[in-house]
Write a structure and sequence with these properties.
The structure is a single chain. By secondary structure, the protein is of the alpha/beta class. The protein has one domain: Rossmann fold. It contains 8 helices and 7 strands; from the N terminus they run E-H-E-H-E-H-E-H-E-H-E-H-H-E-H. It has a 7-stranded parallel beta sheet, sandwiched between helices. Strand 4, helix 4 and strand 5 form a beta-alpha-beta unit. The radius of gyration is 19 Å and the shape is globular. Bound molecules: nicotinamide-adenine-dinucleotide. Nicotinamide-adenine-dinucleotide binds next to helix 1.
């Protein structure tokens, strides 16, 4: 059991949604919380909420798609609290389009924020945790990192990458017999602002024309997320996994594990003729 009280957490995408839910859980468990986000105004409000409740929290405006800004975030955490123990690489965007209709800019933005940011986060923070000989690094993937479907091609590619990266980290830590732990969060539908990700698109990156299929998809997805889990409940699940040193964090295991099994059945069926 990992005792988090008095330790320091760094959370990206902390101004809203799942990231804010994690910050609330970590702070209530007695942690110092370093909150990073690209949205200054929402970040200020989120930090003020935690500080107003008597918790230790600071905000660091950060664009996670820039490695130098992740390094600056680590420096700010170490300067403020003298250590970093739990790192949640959580910031993300969700944009869609059919694979051949998304612009290259759509692909690039998704890879930068949803995959490269986690690579930067692992490269920056894992050495700090290893040197300390304790800590936990997590990243937010998605059920889209374990399953595929239409319209979210770039998102699926990035989120599968996050699962592969964190699973590799887990295996390498185990081989090294390290006391540092890793996990990957794979949420199902959570009631957040992820479907409004366009608000953070850099002005230099152009969007594509939206197809009918995409329109229908977003309407269904928005309805499903509005009826989804409260992000604060996801925060509790992540805290529990950190304290109990669990790798896989699925928010909706009953609904989605059968779909993962279906993927395995498909692999088996396509090789049945060779058995
Ligand atoms: N909501 C869901 O149903 C769901 C499901 C699966 C996975 N996820 C994942 O959960 C994570 C959190 O998303 P959410 O649902 O809370 O959405 P959200 O939009 O409510 O929160 C995402 C946060 O990330 C921040 N952000 C965006 N781009 C950034 C950048 N370049 N640098 C720093 N911060 C940036 C946003 O400002 C926002 O505060 C994402 O990785 C998302 O892919 C969400």
């Amino acid at each position: 059991m990992y005792d988090v009280a008095g330790k320091t957490a760094v959370v990206t995408g902390a101004a809203n949604g799942i990231g804010l839910g994690m910050c609330r859980s970590f702070a209530e468990a007695g942690m110092n919380v370093v909150m990073a986000d690209i949205e200054q105004a929402r970040l200020d409000t989120a930090v003020a909420e935690l500080v107003g409740k008597g918790h230790q929290a600071i905000g660091v405006v950060t664009d996670v798609s820039e490695e130098s800004q992740i390094q600056r975030l680590a420096d700010a955490a170490l300067d403020s609290y003298g250590g970093v123990h739990v790192v949640s690489n959580n910031a993300g965007i969700g944009i869609g389009g059919e694979v051949d209709e998304m612009s290259l800019d759509d692909w690039k933005w998704t890879m930068d924020v949803d995959l490269w940011s986690v690579i930067y986060g692992v490269r920056t923070f894992l050495p700090i945790l290893k040197q300390q000989g304790e800590g936990h690094i997590t990243a937010t993937s998605s059920m889209a990192g374990l399953l595929s479907g239409p319209v979210l091609g770039a998102y699926h590619v990035a989120k599968h990458g996050v699962v592969a990266l964190m699973d590799t980290v887990r295996i390498e830590l185990a081989i090294a017999k390290s006391d540092v732990r890793a996990s990957v969060l794979c949420p199902g539908p959570i009631d957040t602002d992820i479907t409004k990700s366009e608000r953070n698109r850099p002005t230099s990156l152009t969007e594509h024309e939206t197809s009918d299929l995409e329109e229908r998809f977003w309407t269904n997805l928005s309805n499903s997320l509005a009826a989804g889990m409260d992000p604060d409940d996801v925060g509790h699940l992540v805290l529990d996994a950190v304290m109990n040193e669990r790798f896989w964090i699925l928010t909706h295991p009953k609904e989605f594990i059968p779909l993962i099994e279906r993927r395995l059945d498909h692999i088996k069926a396509d090789h049945a003729h060779r058995s």
